Amino acid sequence: MGFNNELDNNDEVMSEINMTPLVDVMLVLLIIFIIAMPLLNQAIKIDLPKADNQTTSISPETITLSVNESGKLYWNKQAISQAVLQQKLQAVAQQQPQPEIHLRGDRHVEYAYIVRVMTAVRHAGIEKLGFITEPMANNKK
Asked: Is 109 exposed, middle or buried (0-12, 13-18, 19+ CB in 10 A)?
């Protein structure tokens, strides 16, 4: 009778799936694909023709518009008036590719001066207008 008790304990049904063979198969497949992938790219050998193909990219001119604390305008470090600004913007708007306008405004200048420059740039038809700022050192205000 003691023999039957030992058999009863070992006859329990195993309810867990053994994942070890699955992991082994997946690792083998992964290794096969890692080895085979470089070979697939070089399966067909073709001697491609050579050509002198240089790209001609014309980088647009960059114009810096600055507005100081008192609202005075500068075109690439040259002082100008609002009327002259409009004339110059109309002239450069016709260029292909159009120049990029970088707007630098003093942090103490009245917002109205910056808006006037932005309106003049947009009215001239110039598409690219960016604002230049100084990065904050160590996030100090």
From this structure: middle
Cα-flanking dihedrals φ and ψ of residue 23, to 5°? -65, -40
Q: Is residue 8 part of a domain?
A: no
Q: Among 136, 62, 141, 60, which Cα is nearest to 103's?
A: 62
**Which pLDDT tens digit goes with each residue over 102-133?**
999 888 888 888 899 999 999 999 988 888 88
The CATH number given to whatever domain includes residue 80 is 3.30.420.270
Q: Is 76 left (phi over 0), alpha (psi -120 to 50) or beta?
A: left
* Entry pTM: 0.55
- Is residue 62 within 8 Å of residue 100, measured between CB atoms? yes
Q: Assess if residue 54 is contained within a domain.
A: no
Q: How many domains does the chain have?
A: 1
In tens, the pLDDT along 41-88 reads 665 676 667 777 676 667 778 889 999 988 899 999 899 998 899 999
**Helix ranges, the chain (H):** 2-10, 20-41, 82-93, 111-124
Q: Any residues with CB less than 8 A from the CB of 88 and at least 6 apart, and which?
A: 75, 80
